[in-house]
Amino acid sequence: MANVHCFGVGLVGSFVASKLADSGHIxxxxxxxxxxxxxxxxxxxxxxxxDDYPIDVMLDMITKQDGFDFDPSRDxxxxxxxxxxxxxxxxALAELPWRTVDLSFSQFxxxxxxxxxxxxxxxxxxxxxxxxxxxxxxxxxxxxEMGPLVKGEVRVGGNPTSPAGGWNYMAPFSPIDxxxxxxxxxxxxxxxxxxxxxxxxxxxxxxxQGKGIMEAxxxxxxxxxxxxxxxxxxxxxxxxxxxxxxxxxxxxxxAEIDVERITSEWQYNEKTPEFTWxxxxxxxxxxTRMRWTVQDHGSDEGHSMARSTGLVTVCCVExxxxxxxxxPPGVHPPESxxxxxxxxxxxxxxxxxxxxxxPVTTPTNQ
Length: 366
Fold this sequence. Notes:
The protein has helices at residues 11-22, 54-64, 83-93, 114-120, 134-146, 175-183, 225-228, 244-252, 259-265, 304-322, 339-351; strands at 3-7, 26-31, 43-47, 76-79, 99-102, 123-126, 149-160, 186-190, 193-197, 204-208, 212-218, 233-240, 274-284, 289-296, 330-332, 355-357. It is α/β, with parallel strands linked by helices. Strands 7, 8, 9, 10, 11, 12, 13, 14 and 16 form a 9-stranded mixed sheet that branches.
């Protein structure tokens, strides 16, 4: 089995590390607070000091060769660090002839390092979660089926199962990254051209089956599909319970964002029931429509965002381990995955208990 090096083992990263270890891989976990995987069979923990970068620790161990084995043709790195530290790690990995599955998320996308990665023989598959990630794959499937799209829309969010007052929200990953989603302008496609719209705009109510009315608003989550999926209109909307985003706007309208307070108030509570829901919709020029919905309520293995996001990452890792030449040197978006790989990923999600429905094709007049 392969050695899999997991950078960051928080709520999502720990789920990924544990699932890969369950599959028999030797997992190395790098984190300043690796308590979620301590004692997990098959996971070797590398505790980082606050100023340590996991890639430096890893390179140091390779240099010392003190019982540490890394074979670039067999082994793989999974970057699941948040924000800027995640981006910095991917940028550094672009200078090494290794394979990297990148789940980190920041304003700066790793495709900017494509030329550097090719020069160094690095191979990076980025945005390997539910959205971006699976959403990209499904939009790509729609494009393969229908050609250039008239419209493509992604609606996605992880939320408490029912509103309970206050923010009606808890962050299933880094709250700082969530705040960045709320403040970064949204890049979308309008009239077949790139347009930049204010974050949180185009607010509208939607009906989520089994949950009731929720609120959707624009966020900057399309990323690679802005250039890989030809379309007249493309949008990504985040889903929250009504009142959440207005509360954010009211609190930040005339004052700087109190990151420390909001981070505390959005702290994830494992005792609170929660769910992740996504809808991907596409319409072709002939009026054909395709729609997928994905929903999960978590399990004893992990909360819903860890499962729905982490399982996609796990599948990407295992697809690449099973086919070492899956991708050439360079930086590749999730829609680079083959249709066969996408089908296996969707099947794995269903096998693991994630609800996936689609595609649904309906005439234009319905």
